[in-house]
Amino acid sequence: MNAIVPLSRGASLAHRAAPAVVVFPHAGGSPRFYAHWAGALTRYQFWGVTYPGRDARLGDATPATLQALALACACELDSLLDNAAPALLIGHSMGAWVAWETARCLEQMTPQRPLMTVVSGQNPPDCPPNTHLYLEDDAALIADINRQNPANRALWENPELCQLFLPAVRNDYWLLETYRVEPGTVADLTVVYGEDDREIDTAAVARWRQASRCVFRSRVLLGGHFYLAAPDLSLPHYLRELLPH
């Protein structure tokens, strides 16, 4: 089953020469969460990554590590994207680390492809969480999900939906909490976070600079950890500033 799904009509064979934007969701997330960006990215191919265990990949097994997930994404993207057209990988929260690892793989696979990486709402990769929620019971896991995103509290009060979605969330937490980075960099890196984000250590965010070997930028936007939820378009508007017109 394909992990990369189109999120706009521009993501088709007829537009392969256009710059591409690929979004890597947060833990427990789906590309559908970012579908409202499509109207702000009409000039670009807009793709989303579906992790195993949800949507059309409900029966797919979770990779052994976050790096293995990134390698699988990179292999699919390397054959999907045009080698000469610019591509921008944008990941939020857990997706930030998946996007950064995927970019490292893609740079080795096709060095000539112009590639930008944007990491949102996440600490640098040498700052792993000191939690083991993937080992805790369902109540503890749901409490943490609701703490980060109270807007979806009603979903987690539905036993049938919990049974459907919670296994994928637990697997994502496992990938996130067992991730241990190996030294490396990407060429072009941008860090974005909400000014009221309490899920990140703002004193540590500057260390993302060490994960870039050439271009480094940072931008602070209004809001908390889920500042980019619908209907907010501040992040896709900023991405347009980074992409060729």
TrEMBL record:
Membrane-spanning ranges: none
Pfam family, one: Thioesterase
Xref: InterPro entries: AB_hydrolase_fold, TEII, Thioesterase
Keyword terms of this UniProt record: Hydrolase
Thioesterase domain mapped to chain residues: 21-230
Gene Ontology molecular-function annotations: hydrolase activity
Protein family according to the UniProt entry: Belongs to the thioesterase family.
Name used for this protein in its record: Alpha/beta fold hydrolase
Organism: Kosakonia calanthes
